[in-house]
From TrEMBL:
This is Small conductance mechanosensitive channel. Keywords: Cell membrane, Membrane, Transmembrane, Transmembrane helix. Its main location: membrane. PANTHER family: MODERATE CONDUCTANCE MECHANOSENSITIVE CHANNEL YBIO. One of its GO terms (cellular component) is plasma membrane. It comes from Brevibacillus fulvus. Residues 124-187 form the Mechanosensitive ion channel MscS domain. Belongs to the MscS (TC 1.A.23) family. The chain crosses the membrane at residues 29-48, 78-100, 106-125. May play a role in resistance to osmotic downshock. GO terms for molecular function: mechanosensitive monoatomic ion channel activity. Residues 194-278 form the Mechanosensitive ion channel MscS C-terminal domain. It is found in: Cell membrane.
Length: 302
């Protein structure tokens, strides 16, 4: 048999639990609170979609204006991220308020905690300040090809704390903004494609340059990335078995490698039509029919 005190305690606990679970007012309050939380979440997501659509439309109208596309994409992404963080923060505060928490002490505590973290996390503050100046000075933007701290790739994301770039082999490099000490941007100015063409000394130099000039005219018409008609600069160097003629083409930013490859293919095809020889190492085997010592034929390489 249980002692009388334990029986009374269990009976009291059972009565309180039963009263709590069967109280219609309490269940009504819980139901209303859940409904309010759901409404807050749905309203936050709906408001976020509206703001994103408005931001995209506003920046979409600016394309083709005084601000270039690369900076528009960066500002659009930053505005969307800022709106997302702000709306979700307010939504979380409203949800917490629905469960009976007073937000005033919470906000005061958050402010004091944020101040303490600010003093302790100096590297984080440095990242944020550096990220602000990167955006303000337009050092680079989303879509630019850059080299940052020996990492080369295309900028995918610029935030106030980190910058994310993707290399041409697929690696993602996440770099804190505070550690960015040197940036090389390949997307701000037009690039130059340099093509060196080797021809034999026996070729007529005037004829070769004339053929290259014709290829330059064709390239300007066929390749959209070329900004100005390619220039034939002339003889760049003399090799052991060939002359090197240099040709350059100004093209859109970061397209010089592709333009140079296409120019080489066009030059090769035109040289074959014109009968111009591109020198390459050759080996000629001569069979010596004269009997050598020992009665065996010899083979000589020239």
């Amino acid at each position: 048999m249980m002692p009388m005190e334990e029986q009374n305690f269990i009976q009291t606990l059972y009565t309180r639990v039963l009263s709590y679970l069967t109280d219609p007012n309490r269940w009504e309050l819980i139901f209303l609170t859940l409904i309010k939380v759901i409404v807050i979440i749905v309203a936050a997501n709906l408001l976020l979609k509206i703001i994103h659509a408005a931001v995209n439309r506003i920046f979409g109208k600016r394309e083709g204006g005084l601000i270039d596309k690369r900076r528009i994409d960066t500002l659009r992404e930053l505005a969307n991220n800022g709106a997302t963080y702000l709306i979700y923060f307010v939504a979380i505060l409203l949800v917490v308020q629905q469960f009976g928490f007073d937000l005033r002490p919470l906000l005061v505590s958050a402010g004091v905690l944020g101040l303490a973290i600010g003093f302790g996390a100096q590297s984080l503050v440095r990242d944020v300040i550096t990220g602000f100046f990167i955006l303000f000075e337009d050092q680079f933007a989303v879509g630019d090809t850059v080299t940052i701290n020996n990492f080369t790739g295309t900028v995918e994301t610029i935030g106030l704390r980190i910058t994310r770039i993707k290399s041409w082999t697929g690696e993602i490099h996440i770099i804190p903004n505070g550690s960015i000490t040197q940036v090389t941007n390949f997307s701000l100015q037009n690039s130059i494609a340099v093509v060196d063409v080797s021809v034999a000394y026996e070729e007529d130099l005037t004829h070769v340059e004339k053929v290259l000039a014709e290829v330059a005219v064709q390239a300007k018409q066929q390749l959209d990335d070329i900004v100005k008609e390619p220039q034939v600069l002339g003889v760049q160097a003399f090799g052991a078995h060939d002359m090197v003629i240099r040709m350059t083409a100004e093209c859109n930013p970061n397209t010089h490698f592709a333009v140079a490859r296409k120019l080489r293919a066009m030059i090769k095809a035109e040289f074959e039509k014109q009968g111009i020889e591109i020198p390459y190492p050759k080996m000629v085997m001569a069979n010596n029919q004269t009997k050598q010592s020992g009665g065996k034929n010899g083979t000589e390489a020239i």
